[in-house]
Each structure stands twice: as C-alpha cells, then as structure tokens.
Amino acid sequence: MKVREMSNVEALMGKYFSFLEKEKKLSINTLASYRRDLTQFVTYLKLCKIYQLHEVSHPILASYLVDLGQKGRSAATLTRAGATLRSFYNYLQAQEGVLDNPAKMLTLPKIQKSMPSILSPEEVELLLEQPSCMDLKGLRDKAMLELLYACGIRVSELMGLNLEDVSLELGVIRCKGIDRERIIPIGRIALVALKNYTSTARNKMISDKAETALFVNVNGKRMTRQGFWKLVKHYQEKACIAKDITPHTLRHSFAAHLLENGADLKSIQEMLGHADISTTQIYAQLSSSKIKNVYERSHPRA
User: Fold this and answer.
1) Which of 101, 73, 221, 110 is CA-nearest to residue 159?
2) What are phi and psi of 227, to 5 degrees?
3) Which of 282, 270, 296, 234 is nearest to 118 (CA)?
4) Which residue of 155, 175, 254, 269 could cross-link 280, Cys pair, CB 3.0 to 4.6 Å?
5) Handedness of CA 262, 265, 270, 272 (dihedral sign)
6) In a 10 Å sphere around its CB, with 0-12 CB exposed, 13-18 middle and 19+ buried, how is residue 209 labelled?
7) What is the DSSP code string of 51-90?
C-alpha cells in the first residue's frame, strides 16, 4: 500500500465525498453522516498517534469500533461507522490504487430491527385537529401534517416540495427521489387543507415572489426539517398524546394504516419510495403482531 501522510487523508476524504455526491448521487443528509463518521475516525487515529494511512490495520479499525462502544454508542451507530469505513476503503481500492483493505473483514454488530412506532387512527385524527386554521401559520401547519400523513413521504421530501410539484387539479404530488421520482395521490382532506394554504396563506408568508418552496417559515423562506420537527412536538403536547411522535411516525402510520385496510405491499412500497420491498415488509410484521395481540386478548382459549 502506498505511504500517505495523514495530512493527505483530508484530501482523499474530499475526493471521496465528491465521488459520493457526483457519482453515487447520495443525499445531503447521507453525505453529512459519512463526513461525520470519517472525521471522527481521523480524530481517533491522531489520538493513537497514527499519522500515516498505511499504519491503519484491521486491529486498529476494530479497536476504533470498540472505543465507540465503550463510549456508549448504540449498535446502530457502530454498524454505520463500520459501513462508512468499508465504503471509504472500497473507494480507495477502486479509485486510488490502494491495495490493502483493512476494513474488508471488519465484523459489525447485528442490529435487531425494532418495530416502528405508529399512531392509532384516533391519535392521528387528534393530532391533525390541533392546528388552528384561523391564522396563516395554522393553515400552513394543517396542510403540512395532513399531506405528510396522506402521502407517507419523508420529512426531507416534504420540505423539498416546490409549487410545481403539486397538481391540485389532479390531486397528486410529484416526489423527487435520488434516482427517480414518484407520483403520489394526495387524498380528499389533505387536498382541501393544501388548497386553503396555497390560496390564502402562502402568498402572504413568502418574502420573495420568486420563492419556489411549497412550505415556508415565518421569514418567508423554505421550511426546515428542524422547524417542522418542533411543530410536530408542539402539536403532540397540545393534543396530550403520550407517545413520542416524530415526523417519521406519521410516515409509519400511513403505511401501517394502508396495510390494515387492505392495501398490498407492492403499492405501499411504491408510495413510500422503498428501493427494496424487504424494507416495506416490516409493516406486515407489525400487522401480524397486532393480530396476535388481539387474538390473545379476545380468544377464550388463547
């Protein structure tokens, strides 16, 4: 393996991130995770007085993951950190002529997939009733919450929607993914909330007529994920719902409620934008678990 000074690692990382962004077309959030992981790893190497890349061996990588575990990092964090190292070294081998790959045989902890938290239809109804439609902010919040539950999109996709991505006439939104886009029906109630927002509130909230964002904050700029997360928490408290609700909870609830009412997994996969149907199948497991609980509570010989 070529000897490289640690000062060159940052340059290699820069090329690697450029590769992920331009060739792999990863999202901004995924790129940020990779950057965070590798920056943390370089800090660990410096603490170990390792200043040349060729000094990084499999035991060093393993000890790094052990160190993360001792600091209380979760199994999911350790798995992601290990996956980042594997990806980085795969890039070095394929693109930079590096021969050795100490991350190749790295053992990652197995993660037990937990069932997603969902709301009951009654809890969803209660949450969506909270925004007051008597003011501009309330009209916006109502439209955002209704649309998120009606379409099951990710919060990043919700925040990324532009006016041109919505067809009020057809009752659909166009959701742009990394490598493809999908068309999702809005639903009657969400469509009414969206029409009320776009026809009344949005034009008064934007600070620039050229603004393309569908949902804007009080400054007239595109709404952020962090801002929306705070709104969800606010309405959770207002509704006095004990469950911990995040924007993703509404996405999970959307999928689970569709499945419970007869939708097929393939259609749900398409609407959620899952690349692999195995990701969608967790909702089938959730439905089976619910059926089992109902049986055990209700059957006289259970």
Assistant:
1) 221
2) -65, -40
3) 282
4) 269
5) positive
6) exposed
7) -BGGG--HHHHHHHHHHHHHTT--HHHHHHHHHHHHHHHH
Residue 144 and residue 215: Cα distance in Å, rounded? 8
Neighbour-count burial of 109, counting CB atoms closer than 10 A to its CB (0-12 exposed, 13-18 middle, 19+ buried): middle
Q: Which parts of 183-281 fold into alpha helices (H)? A: 188-196, 202-205, 225-239, 247-260, 265-272, 277-280
CATH architecture of 6-95: Orthogonal Bundle (1.10)
Domain 121-297, CATH class in plain words? mainly alpha
Measured between alpha carbons, how far is 36 from 42 in angstroms, rounded to an integer? 10
Residue 224: phi and psi, rounded to 5, are -100, 160
Mean pLDDT rounded to a whole number for the chain: 85
The span from the CA of 173 to the CA of 183, in Å, is 6
Model confidence, pTM: 0.63
Q: What are the residue ranges of CATH 1.10.443.10 in the chain?
A: 121-297
- Residue intervals in the chain for CATH 1.10.150: 6-95
Asked if the model's pLDDT at residue 11 lies above 90, the reply is no
Q: How many residues does the chain have?
A: 302
54 against 136, higher pLDDT: 136
